């Protein structure tokens, strides 16, 4: 632990260090003025030195806000459909929390609160209080959705309508008309669920907080939040592609969702192309003006930009040095000695093309018989949306294809495809 003579680095690496540096410069300026007035510079210097926080003390102050004149971290409310943890009920008033497969897991530089669904139905008040208390230790705040809402909002509108459309798969034929009963029911549930998220955010919001909404599950949320408080700082980020305006135009609720997203102050996408598609949809469908900075509607500017994200590469590099990882690498090298290994790691999703990849590998083996004993495809598939019928069909299809190819080209000692269904943490880092 450093002593009280801690001085922030010349090049601040974080918001906290920048604030400490600015504070140092202000006090240094007062010190210079004092020496010019003939005061005791040494005494002033000692007081200035003693006034600096140690690095750990500064972090503690930023977390607790113990002193009003000390720098604090910006409070950030991250709102996503799922929390970074999943809850498993173990009794009337007890829950076990596990890290979720996928999701948002790391936001640094901020005093963060997570708001979302914990993946479990909790109809009773005792259970809700117990879960809220358990999640509070991890700075998570639950939104309680019942089974009907989850089925219509998440499995229905989100995964049956928006997800395929945003990935250019188009709408199911029966959902193309706004008068379709199932579509209307799902869309009503979608709006209701977004309003429930907004109610929880508004309950925990404090002046100065930044609210960060995530993904296609919560496109209606920015409008709900701004209706509560038009001064609230709201951002929305999409974790999927945003389709061209011609594709988005096929969605019956297209205008409603676009205007809801435009209520945010900042809208973010993975790539410039997705951002361009969004602006194009706003101009062509809503008839409003696009600008180099975003979209302007009746004097209100919504900034639109691309913010590429990735993984925590340093974490993987550190993992390579672990003894258990080294031992596993040694086992794999011995197991596949003399063979080329083709590795695939994908979520078991319709858009990932896993069946097509496996069938292409079969075609390769058909046309290159001399490679059959020299190459192996190691496909790791992470299950997702296991309660959706289309994904259950996909899982069965992949298993059938793998079994047929291994039966055709495999031997008593080796098979060409190793298909592993593994629940691993595929995580997004910011």
């Amino acid at each position: 632990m450093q002593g009280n003579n801690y001085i922030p680095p010349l090049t601040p690496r974080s918001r906290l260090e920048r604030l400490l540096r600015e504070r140092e410069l202000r006090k240094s300026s007062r010190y210079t003025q004092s020496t010019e007035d003939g005061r005791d510079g040494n005494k002033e210097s000692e007081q200035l030195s003693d006034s600096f926080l140690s690095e750990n003390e500064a972090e503690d102050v930023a977390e607790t806000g113990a002193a009003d004149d000390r720098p604090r971290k910006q409070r950030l409310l991250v709102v996503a459909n799922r929390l970074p943890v999943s809850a498993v009920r173990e009794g009337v008033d007890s829950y076990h929390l596990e890290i979720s497969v996928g999701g948002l897991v790391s936001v640094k530089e901020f005093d963060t609160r997570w708001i979302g669904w914990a993946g479990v139905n909790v109809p009773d008040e005792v259970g809700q209080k117990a879960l809220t208390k358990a999640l509070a230790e991890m700075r998570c705040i639950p939104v309680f959705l019942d089974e009907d809402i989850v089925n219509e909002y998440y499995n229905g509108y989100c995964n049956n309508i928006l997800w395929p459309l945003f990935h250019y798969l188009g709408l199911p034929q029966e959902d193309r008309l706004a008068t379709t009963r199932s579509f209307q029911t799902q869309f009503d549930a979608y709006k209701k669920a977004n309003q429930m998220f907004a109610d929880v955010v508004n309950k925990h919001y404090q002046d100065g907080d930044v609210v960060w909404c995530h993904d296609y599950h919560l496109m209606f949320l920015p409008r709900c939040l701004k209706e509560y408080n038009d001064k609230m700082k709201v951002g929305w980020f999409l974790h999927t592609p945003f389709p061209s305006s011609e594709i988005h135009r096929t969605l019956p609720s297209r205008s409603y969702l676009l205007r809801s997203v435009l209520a945010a102050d900042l809208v973010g996408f993975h790539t410039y192309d997705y951002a361009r598609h969004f602006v194009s949809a706003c101009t062509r469908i809503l008839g409003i003006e696009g600008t180099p900075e975003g979209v302007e509607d009746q004097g209100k500017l919504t900034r639109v930009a691309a913010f590429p994200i990735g993984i925590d590469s340093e974490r993987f590099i550190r993992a390579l040095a672990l003894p258990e990882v080294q031992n596993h690498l040694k086992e794999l090298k011995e197991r596949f000695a003399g063979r080329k290994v083709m590795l695939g790691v994908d979520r078991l999703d319709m858009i990932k093309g896993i069946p097509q990849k496996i069938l292409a590998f079969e075609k390769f083996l058909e046309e290159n018989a001399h490679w059959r004993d020299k190459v192996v495809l190691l496909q790791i598939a992470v299950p997702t949306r296991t309660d959706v019928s289309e994904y259950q069909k996909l899982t069965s299809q992949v298993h059938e294809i793998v079994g047929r190819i291994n039966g055709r080209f495999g031997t008593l000692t080796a098979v060409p495809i190793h298909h592993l269904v593994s629940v691993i943490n595929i995580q997004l880092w910011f």
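The chain has 14 helices and 16 strands. Confidence is low (pLDDT under 50) at residues 1-12, 30-70, 424-430.
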